[in-house]
Amino acid sequence: MATVTNWIDHLSAKEVVGAVYPGAGSTETLLVLLGLVFWIGWHYLTAKSESEKLSRLASKRHGANDHKSNITNW
Questions:
Q1: Cα separation of 51 and 59, whole Å?
Q2: Which end of the chain is more exposed for a tag (fewer CB within 10 A), N or C?
Q3: Per residue in 9-28, is it b (16+ CB within 10 Å) or e — as a string?
Q4: pLDDT tens string 45-72
């Protein structure tokens, strides 16, 4: 394995023109886009499930003192 003593000469050589490591640019862009899609999807699904749960609880119309009667599924 060769050692590099001068990075400026090494990076400007014809063999190394472009990226210093493989997949620079395109791979990171794809991963960032996939991460954003996952993040937005996660928040959408979480908000949807929480609003369904809250609407179910709101439809039961519990009173202010119902917790004293130990009602299940409060």
A1: 12
A2: N
A3: eeeeeeeeeeeeeeeeeeee
A4: 999 999 998 888 777 776 777 777 765 6
pTM above threshold 0.70: no
Which two tokens mark 46? 């979480």
Please give the structure tokens belonging to residue 39.
Answer: 């993040």
Angle at 68 between CA 71 and CA 70, to 5 degrees: 25
- Indicate the helix (H) or strand (E) that contains 39: helix 26-59
pLDDT tens digits, 6-39: 776 666 776 666 666 666 667 788 888 999 999 9
